[in-house]
Design brief:
- By secondary structure, the protein is mostly beta strands.
- It contains 2 helices and 21 strands.
- It has helices at about 1-15, 195-200; strands spanning about 20-25, 45-50, 50-55, 65-70, 75-80, 80-85, 85-90, 110-120, 120-130, 135-140, 145-155, 160-165, 170-175, 180-190, 205, 210-215, 220-225, 230-235, 235-240, 245-250, 255-260.
- The strands form 5 sheets. Strands 1, 4, 7, 9, 12 and 14 form a 6-stranded antiparallel beta sheet that branches. Strands 2-3-8-13-10-11 form a 6-stranded antiparallel beta sheet, with no helix packed on it. Strands 18-17-20-21 form a 4-stranded antiparallel beta sheet.
- A hairpin with a 3-residue loop joins strand 15 and strand 16 (about 210-215).
- Mean pLDDT is about 90; it is low at about 1-15.
- It comes from bioreactor metagenome.
- It holds the Pfam family Por_Secre_tail.
Length: about 260
């Protein structure tokens, strides 16, 4: 009975996503992205804002995802859009990140990154400005294992829009920088909603591509699609040696399930 129930749950979560174009106007959305000093103190803090994953990773300070009201008197303009605020990474996405990095030294970011779940082929568009008017900076998009594309933001004070095309199956895309870049608008053409991930994120549980992060040290279990329990722990669980496939994380005190792919 338990195995049958788990298979039914697995099927539900595989098929229950909502597929659509999605836009996050991070520079002018007082409901989802109000002015703030950041999402909070890390490490391993994850917050979802309207489906956009915002992650501190290893950093312990609070300013990842800061929304700064820096253009109230003279909003930044791109086309017909007006942006009184800017969304800030406040640093690079991995240890040792440097402005000179034309490609990332890692494909799985370790700090200060965003995640977007996509259903397959599509584009990611980002409007932004280098965090230093005198430096060209880069935003990298990966699937956790390989570089999908690079967005280049030259020094200056004007917003530019960059586009990266993703071709492949449903996955999580990671957005991170070589140094601070300020964002105003993000668009994903093949976004897929996965609300259960957000529920477990509220419990401090997230997947970073290599392990299940269990920030609050609660009891968690991992199952495969056949309902077989693979692992159980009150700590982080490494999945780097798991076979390719779909897995599910259950948390104590929750009926929700986090689905992840290897």
């Amino acid at each position: 009975m338990k195995k049958t129930l788990l298979i039914a749950v697995a099927t539900l979560f595989i098929t229950s996503g909502t597929f659509a174009q999605k836009v996050w106007v991070v520079g002018n959305d007082p409901v989802n992205f109000p002015v703030s000093t950041g999402i909070g103190a890390g490490p391993d803090l994850t917050v979802y804002k309207d489906g956009l994953g915002i992650h501190t990773g290893t950093v312990t300070n609070t300013n990842m995802g800061q929304v700064e009201a820096s253009h109230i008197s003279s909003p930044k303009i791109f086309g017909e859009a007006s942006y009184p605020n800017r969304f800030k990474f406040n640093g690079g996405g991995y240890s040792g990140a440097a402005t000179s990095d034309e490609t990332p030294t890692v494909n799985m970011p370790t700090q200060r990154y965003l995640t977007i779940t996509v259903s397959g082929n599509g584009t990611i568009k980002v409007q932004g400005i280098s965090g230093n008017s005198g430096e060209t900076r880069r935003l990298f998009i990966t699937d956790g294992t390989k570089l999908i594309g690079t967005m280049v933001y030259p020094g200056g004070s004007n917003i530019s829009e960059e586009t990266v095309t993703y071709t492949g199956p449903a996955t999580t895309l990671y957005l991170f920088t070589n140094q601070a870049i300020n964002l105003y608008r993000i668009e994903a053409s093949s976004y897929i909603t996965a609300s259960v991930n957000q529920v477990l994120a509220d419990k401090g549980i997230s997947y970073n591509g290599n392990e299940i992060v269990n920030r609050d040290k609660i009891a968690i279990e991992i199952y495969d699609v056949l309902g077989k329990r693979i692992a159980a722990s009150n700590n982080n669980i490494s999945v780097s040696n798991y076979d390719k496939g779909v897995y599910f994380v259950r948390a104590a005190g929750s009926k929700e399930t986090l689905k992840f792919n290897r």
